[in-house]
Design brief:
The complex is a heterodimer of chains A (84) and B (229). Chain A has 84 residues and is an alpha+beta fold. Chain A contains two helices and six strands; from the N terminus they run ββαβββαβ. Chain A has a single domain (6-81), classed as SH3 type barrels. The chains are: A alpha+beta (84), B alpha/beta (229).
Chain lengths: 84, 229
């Protein structure tokens, strides 16, 4: 079996499902993202990317949330599925 | 005999808190769904049996860690104004997200009622919710309602009544943290307890101190330390 592929959320492609493994943020922004459902183990789907790639909309616990690359580049996860 | 009680409504944005508030109080409070809509605290009353419940509609928030003014207003009301019961309104269709706030409230105060709203929508989506199991796990009453269709109100009001009269005792489930944090809590909680007495949950204050919550410290200074003391 392949080793799990770890990517940053910012590099996710539309339709990717990513299982979050780490949040490299501190303070209020970390707290905020945790409250919104970006917790370790959560499944996040890349819903759509803006024309210039920023921000990106993610589906996390039944809600769509857009993140700027400042945040999405600091969240890492395991690429679970790659359906186009 | 006292027959007026304050009941605070807390919950995530768009869970139908204001709909519930309006349906119960008959007050035409404006409802909409943009951020920070419920800015000031709307109040209204509802009579049940021989009692009057003063309902307070807190701002809708995802969390109560005072990341924003809304969260601070809601948090301060629950911990410092001490309503007789805090009703946490949850969206039945996204319980996972909504329970985050519920767990935070359970850590802050004792008399909590979990009110699962939009149960009709959830059932249409094939979501079944076992409220008995939730009641057992959370240690506080869990009631399912549909505020829009005014379903479940008698049960909700009766349960609030039984909490304020002492017929139901709430034992909110407490989160257990990693050993390192629990060890620190053991050290500082007795000292916090000496200071805050029965005013606040000493475990909760100790947790906030470990998190470096200065806004809370300032609030405690303002409210609990006597003038010139």
């Amino acid at each position: 079996m392949d080793k799990p592929k770890i990517i940053k959320l910012v590099h996710g492609q539309k339709g990717n499902i990513i299982k979050i493994t780490s949040l490299n943020l501190d303070g209020v922004m970390r707290r905020r993202l945790l409250d919104l459902g970006f917790v370790s183990g959560a499944m996040v789907e890349v819903v759509r990317k803006s024309p210039l790639g920023d921000p990106i909309a993610f589906r996390v616990s039944q809600t769509t949330i857009a993140l700027r690359k400042e945040e999405s580049s600091r969240i890492e996860g395991e690429l679970v599925s790659n359906e186009e | 005999m006292r027959n007026e009680y304050r009941i605070a409504l807390a919950g995530n944005p768009n869970t139908g808190k204001s709909t519930l508030f309006n349906a119960l109080t008959g007050l035409r409070q404006h409802t909409g769904n943009w951020a920070g809509k419920t800015v000031s605290l709307a109040q209204g009353s509802v009579s049940f049996k021989d009692k009057t419940f003063q309902l307070i509609d807190l701002p809708g928030t995802y969390s109560l860690f005072s990341n924003s003014t809304d969260e601070e207003v809601a948090r301060n009301y629950i911990v410092f104004e001490k309503p007789d019961v805090t009703v946490v309104v949850l969206d039945a269709t996204s319980l996972e997200r909504n329970l985050n706030l519920a767990l935070q409230v359970l850590e802050m105060t004792t008399n909590v009622l979990i009110c699962i709203n939009l149960i009709d929508v959830a059932e249409q989506q094939g979501i079944a919710i076992n409220e008995r199991l939730l009641t057992n796990r959370l240690g506080v009453p869990v009631i399912k309602i549909s505020a829009r269709n005014k379903k479940g109100f008698p049960m909700l009001l009766d349960t609030i009544d039984r909490i304020v009269s002492g017929a139901i005792e709430c034992h909110p489930a407490q989160m257990t943290y990693p050993d390192e944090i629990e060890a620190q809590l053991k050290k500082i909680e007795p000292k916090v307890s000496e200071f805050v007495g029965n005013h606040l949950s000493s475990r909760w204050v100790a947790l906030r101190l470990l998190d470096g919550d200065e806004a809370l410290l300032n609030e405690i200074n303002k409210r609990l330390v006597p003038e010139g003391g």
